[in-house]
UniProtKB/TrEMBL annotation:
This is RNase H type-1 domain-containing protein. The lineage of its organism: Eukaryota, Metazoa, Ecdysozoa, Arthropoda, Crustacea. It comes from Meganyctiphanes norvegica. InterPro entries: Hepadnavirus_pol/RT, RNaseH-like_sf. It comes from the Eukaryota. PANTHER family: REVERSE TRANSCRIPTASE DOMAIN-CONTAINING PROTEIN, RIBONUCLEASE H. Transmembrane segments: none annotated.
Length: 270
């Protein structure tokens, strides 16, 4: 596809004095994505991930007044510009957790296929742009985890998995597959799941149909819509031991959660 000889967005047009962004013409057919480009932006910086490559940048001071949507679009632009030599001739799936950026791309028929990636899953790009703790990426300590047996860790990254076999939220050469919610879980006999809480409303119905066994680490949130069906599937949840720890590796080193009581984490046997 010759479209990737061009950038789809620029700061200014050679024929325009007004500046601003403009779109190159694109072919009518949409290519099949062959590469996944993850982007994210925060108030302090931006990141781009085209595995195994990662790039992080800091915004100029005069960008501080720009909206979050503008920063997300700029992160996509900078990512495409930076990786252009690797993107030529490829179909690119742009994975962003900003719905406005995705809708903008779709509105203008931009050839790179934009896809909204739930913030709970946009892990690597989010971590690089924020350069700090991510609320969805806590991992159990080894001492607590060692008595949990399973074939595969369904919601992990190579940063926090305790299993050699794991499913990542994003494409990764070290993982079995990516995006656990798109897979058939019955290919495994036993599962380990410690997913982001916002995904539990999608996960619990899948677990109710799962034919195997496993362990889910999830909070005891009796007011949640997913709680009752989960309790039917696993009627005797066990609180995690008092000595359990949650940690994650950030750009500033390993960080431990300081208030575990707010989660009321339990082990739900399947």
């Amino acid at each position: 596809m010759e479209i990737f000889l061009f950038l789809w967005i620029r700061h200014s047009s050679p024929s325009s004095e007004s500046g601003g962004m403009w779109i190159f013409s694109v072919p009518m057919s949409i290519p099949t994505p062959t590469l996944q480009l993850m982007t994210d932006a925060s108030c302090s910086g931006w990141s781009e991930v085209l595995l195994p490559h990662k790039v992080v940048g800091v915004w100029p001071r005069h960008y501080s007044d720009q909206s979050s949507n503008w920063l997300e679009l700029m992160a996509i632009y900078l990512s495409l510009r930076h990786f252009l030599p690797l993107l030529r001739g490829e179909g690119v799936l742009i994975m962003s957790d900003n719905t406005t950026a995705v809708e903008y791309c779709l509105l203008h028929s931009i050839t790179p296929v934009p896809k909204h990636l739930c913030g709970a899953l946009n892990v690597v790009a989010d971590q690089e742009s924020c350069r700090g703790v991510i609320s969805t990426e806590w991992s159990l300590d080894v001492k607590t985890f060692q008595w949990i047996s399973s074939q595969v860790d369904l919601f992990a990254t190579h940063y926090n998995t305790h299993r050699p076999s794991f499913v990542s939220p994003f494409p990764d050469p070290l993982t079995l597959d990516f995006n656990a919610l798109s897979l058939q879980w019955d290919v495994w006999d036993s599962l380990y799941l410690f997913p982001p809480v916002p995904l539990l409303h999608q996960i619990v119905p899948r677990l109710c149909q799962f034919k195997g066994r496993g362990v889910l680490i999830a909070p005891y949130y009796a007011q949640s819509a997913w709680f009752t069906p989960l309790l039917l599937r696993s009627p005797n949840p066990v609180p995690l031991p008092d000595f359990h720890l949650l940690s994650q590796v950030t750009n500033h080193g390993q960080v431990f959660h300081s208030n575990l009581a707010i989660f009321s984490l339990h082990m739900w046997r399947l």
